[in-house]
């Protein structure tokens, strides 16, 4: 009697496989389209002028050419992040490699969001959630120019949310692989930017509490064992490499000590005070951005009262723990930049889920799905805003303030630098302006840029840069000032040892002037 059903089951299985393939192709195309318009690393843009992105790329490129992070070049993010930029450089010695990495990570984020939505929604309505979520995940000013550690953390953060709902669907049971991947996710975040680990800290602590209450000691033991194994695999790879290169001490100094001890303390000094201050920073800043304010602050209340989404108190506890501990670790230090908020944007997708569950009554046609994806792409482009600095606007101020130059300072200066054999370059007194990348030149000094660390706490940073200028050890020096400054305001020892060969005005966060100097002959 069962034999006649086999062809039907086979057909259903083939149909599901086709549908899955269609879904993933659609998400990949959508991810590429979103990154194309919002990331300045995409082919639609002349360059990516964001200083953090260029610093990461310089570190990855240097690593690819034998310069060990922290030992040979000073920067303060984690080695896992620089591995991604090493891979980006290997893909293409241009911003294209970064664009491809961003697209793949955004695609992975959308896939996990889709799988999360499938616990509650039909396949096509789950795609609708993914499309709308892209607006929140690329919102300006938090997204910046693309390529931030926060953006690349999206898959690991969204995976936390996915596992919370998977636990709900499976009566607080997860596979060994799920726990292993959760540990790997925590390890990657810890070794990329450790302030981003809060969602996983909340996840594991609340999971332990829930399993202890349920007296599921065997499940708890498996969770601890395989999660620790995943975290240890990442940590062992990192520590083994830096031990082998004799750079463990440098890793500690640059990644831990410099981030913790070299920045001036801000806000409260007690742990309780810092936790309260983190919430104050989060809420008070978001109130100026109504859309994100409503989504991120409305999320906890939806979690508290929407029993269609949160069916048990344990799952509710886990979700809120992940959310609030991520706020705590992100803003615990009291210092923040706009892009810090980006790591919390995945939690803005929860209100969408609550709304779409109630709209998932009628089937979504393919035409409406296509129109939704296009609409969300257009809204993402508009609310991100980077598009006005793309090649579609050739006279935009990020190229030239007066419209007189066809290319930005980085490309114009790079042509002058590449006229010399084996040129050397110093990015003086500023974060990485992108000239190392544009000119295809590797740094020759440890402090290849000036970090936002006060000179009083790290005097050797500018001391090294000034020594290179005084001793004329680099062929070119690039300096950046606010637009309107005269050359007399450039440090005297630069003007004494170097000739000014090019000046360029363009916009980067403010109107600025870029100055290129070439060493004077002896």
Automatic annotation (TrEMBL):
Keyword entries, A-Z: Membrane, Transmembrane, Transmembrane helix
Chain ranges passing through the membrane: 21-39, 94-114, 126-143, 200-217, 224-244, 289-305, 314-333, 339-357, 369-389
Protein name: Glycosyltransferase RgtA/B/C/D-like domain-containing protein
